[in-house]
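pipeline/complex-builder :: batch 7 item 3
reading input block
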Amino acid sequence: MNYSAILLKKRPDITITSDIFEKVSKPVPEIAEGEFLVKQTHMSLDPAMRGWMSADRESYIPPVELGEVMRSSGIGDVVASRHPDFPVGTRVMGMMGWTEYFVAKGGLSPVPTSVPQEALLSVVALPGVTAYHGLYEVLKPQAGQTLVVTGAAGSVGSMVGQLAKLEGVTVVGVAGSDEKCHWLTETLGFDAAINYHDEDFAAKLATATPNGIDLFFENTGGVAQQHIYQRMNAHGRVAVCGMIADYNTATPQPGPNWMNIVRKRLMIQGFTMPDHFHRFAEYGQKLAALMMDGKLQYRAHTLHGLDSAIEGINLLFSGENKGKLIVAL
Amino acid sequence: MNYSAILLKKRPDITITSDIFEKVSKPVPEIAEGEFLVKQTHMSLDPAMRGWMSADRESYIPPVELGEVMRSSGIGDVVASRHPDFPVGTRVMGMMGWTEYFVAKGGLSPVPTSVPQEALLSVVALPGVTAYHGLYEVLKPQAGQTLVVTGAAGSVGSMVGQLAKLEGVTVVGVAGSDEKCHWLTETLGFDAAINYHDEDFAAKLATATPNGIDLFFENTGGVAQQHIYQRMNAHGRVAVCGMIADYNTATPQPGPNWMNIVRKRLMIQGFTMPDHFHRFAEYGQKLAALMMDGKLQYRAHTLHGLDSAIEGINLLFSGENKGKLIVAL
């Protein structure tokens, strides 16, 4: 029996084009003692994958080598096993890549079969733990503060806002469409949401943050950044998680002048989750518990079939995805 | 008997011009019970004073009100006293302003008469404690790291570099003249010093920091910032203390794009000392001990007479001062 996988064949120039990938068909391998075979059912598509495709040796984890299966996290079921801890039927989550089957000796985490895979990938996986770490370890929210999150309808931003609401924080989301903004306020309970395409974005931001901004969770860069930065309060804290607006541009926009950093004594901290892998389980358990209590909503934008990943990943950079982008295999 | 003081009469437009000040003559007042009279002998001129002149209510301390004596720190001797803790002959340091005499009920700190006033204002006063706080509380240096400090020949920068050298850190200073750079390497023992006017600044910076930059103490903003920022190592730390290049410009330069903040997981922290007044005594004692041991060098650039403050303060912004700018009265 054969299965399909998608290899990275070329580095992307600026945007991700389909010719940088190659689909291959391989026989499903026999497993050796201590190994198990996973049939992947759901792959997660995340903005961080753009960085993994580039040969930037300065990035926080090594790039995918050319000719390797494209890296991604996902969920699957163990369909053959010679490993005592991963019997057939175990559902596992972890880095398996763009492939229908994956042979492992470990390195994957068992997950409950009672929770939909989309929920696990949306809340408990990378986006959720990223939101959790950035909010609690970097921003350190206090009740009564005002938080602004960009990419607010994305898989990270939507979790940041919901977790902050649970802490008694006033939450303002910035997103790229009125539909997303409506979802943030009506379904997720954000106090306000602003479309960054609005011409009067700055005025709307001022209206939504009458007491200024204490906490800024930055996912996107782009035009909103300058306006949010200007409204930061003294001792404001900024978690910089992503610059999605700049990933696919040759000439990233300049940042704001640093004068405000002194005047307001701002703290700006960049972070990426690979530095904090040892806390994944702890964060995941807390997120799972909140989700089970109905306190964290999510929406998944599900594509179908391995091939859909190739074009689908660009939805993250155009902002056309509505919710956590997932490929169901 | 009369004495002179200088009042702030207008807000500066962009640069500081002499017409924003007014010199007045007043009779030396009688002191009441609980008061003491200080004859100021040395006033400190510091870049932060530019901010105190502006009506920017968002700044970290309130501006000087129009018609008030211009704010500054200084040293003087008690010449009349009805306060038991400050007998005649006590030498005191603190905020007295641009004035020859000052009546106080407290709020000033006794300092030893055995140490030259220039040394106290250069090492133990605001510049020294600012350097101490920024280095130890924000940058947290570790032996073997590489630190770059801008405004390196200034009163804060020169202390940052010397303290860091004591911690086993490789120290590279950025200053505005070859003479200053020579002083940094030959007298203060910096590992390298680069003139930011050099056309090949970026290349020289790369040569001086072969292992990248772990710690960045930013006093100035301006052209050097982008180059230093680009060479930051993963988990680099940045203390933002001042933007002297931008204080007197109507259109401050943009800062660097934030992508590197994520990619390198940088921590950028702005700070100003008024937030940390409660630690002045602790820092001052440590600095005084190091100075007495001959481990901290300084140079004072001393002007003479109250009037000299008016034109003299601009030396800080043109970079023409050589060392801690002080007015001897």
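note: The mean pLDDT of chain A is 93.
queue -> next item
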